Write a sequence for this structure.
């Protein structure tokens, strides 16, 4: 099993989601950007970012809180992730596995085979439900290694599934550099291999993923428009997904790309395609102290999943603190 750490891949803010999570080399200076590449993030402006996504009529809820701590030599970007899945049906005790004749103890064909055969039925009174929660913590900071600045992401994950629980830690390393007018980025996630240890001793490991990406900015000065072009390709060993760009032995690759148009540094239009083949898009609005982002994610390339939506609100920390201070004084 190698899916335990995927929450850190698909749970991002609305801006990155609308751009297909291809923003590995695009530093839009919000805390959520460091989930894609820990070498990104703001060196000056401090924002508090809150994202929410509800899927399948509230059956799955995802929340992301991001902020920056500027008390050290270099800023520390913090992201706290939560996913809750409620009322998962547990049907394992419902089957009256008595065989084709529907009578217990006759040892006829189908009895005790664990399959719903003709003549067998389900006991609705045995239907029960359980839930799943995941809580993740991701911190990112910059450091120099052999005189080269890298971004380091340290992450923790707690996973609760019915009466079972797991905990684990992982590490990401990112790098970004500009050559000419193009930004190039490299990110290695889950180094050497991030793992979850379950309460029964089972170890759920996630293989290292290596990603490369680019970002290019085109300015249309006369129209007050900026165009941001993004691309990313992921390489993963021993991956089971079938939508890879190409496969060499046990190595598979997945691509994503996007474009963002910004008018007058206030209005944002976004569209892209993520690494599972889903079309993405969204809009954004920026005021002096607050920005609002919306993302639309379509079904996957093979028609799996459904359309869903994501909203993020970003508030400058100084504005938020002043607002809270004023309200407290008025009381």
């Amino acid at each position: 099993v190698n899916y335990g750490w995927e929450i850190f891949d698909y749970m991002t803010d609305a801006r990155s989601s609308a751009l297909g999570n291809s923003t590995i080399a695009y530093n839009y200076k919000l805390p959520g950007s460091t989930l894609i590449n820990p070498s990104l993030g703001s060196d000056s402006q401090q924002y508090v970012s809150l994202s929410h996504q509800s899927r399948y009529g509230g059956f799955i809820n995802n929340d992301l809180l991001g902020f920056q701590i500027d008390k050290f030599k270099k800023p520390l970007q913090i992201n706290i992730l939560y996913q809750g899945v409620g009322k998962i049906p547990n049907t394992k005790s419902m089957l009256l596995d008595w065989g084709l004749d529907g009578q217990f103890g006759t040892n006829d064909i189908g009895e005790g085979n664990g399959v719903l055969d003709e003549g067998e039925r389900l006991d609705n009174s045995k239907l029960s439900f359980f839930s799943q929660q995941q809580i993740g913590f991701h911190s990112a900071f910059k450091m120099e290694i052999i005189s080269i600045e890298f971004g380091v992401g340290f992450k923790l994950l707690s996973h609760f599934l019915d009466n079972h629980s797991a905990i684990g830690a992982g590490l990401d390393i990112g790098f970004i550099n500009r050559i000419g007018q193009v930004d190039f980025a490299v990110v290695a996630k889950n180094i050497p291999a991030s793992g979850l240890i379950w309460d029964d001793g089972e170890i759920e490991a996630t293989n290292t993923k290596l990603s490369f990406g680019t970002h290019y900015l085109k300015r249309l000065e006369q129209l007050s428009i900026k165009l941001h072009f993004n691309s990313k390709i992921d390489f993963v060993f021993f991956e089971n997904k079938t939508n890879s760009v190409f496969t060499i032995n046990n190595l598979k690759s997945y691509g994503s790309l996007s474009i963002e148009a910004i008018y007058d540094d206030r209005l944002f239009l976004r569209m892209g395609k993520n690494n599972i083949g889903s079309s993405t898009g969204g809009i954004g609005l920026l005021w002096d102290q607050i920005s609002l982002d919306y993302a639309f994610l379509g079904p996957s390339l093979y028609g799996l999943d459904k359309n869903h939506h994501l909203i993020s609100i970003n508030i400058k920390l100084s504005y938020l603190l002043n607002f809270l201070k004023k309200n407290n004084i008025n009381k």
Q: What stands out?
A: The mean pLDDT is 84. The longest strand covers residues 128-145.
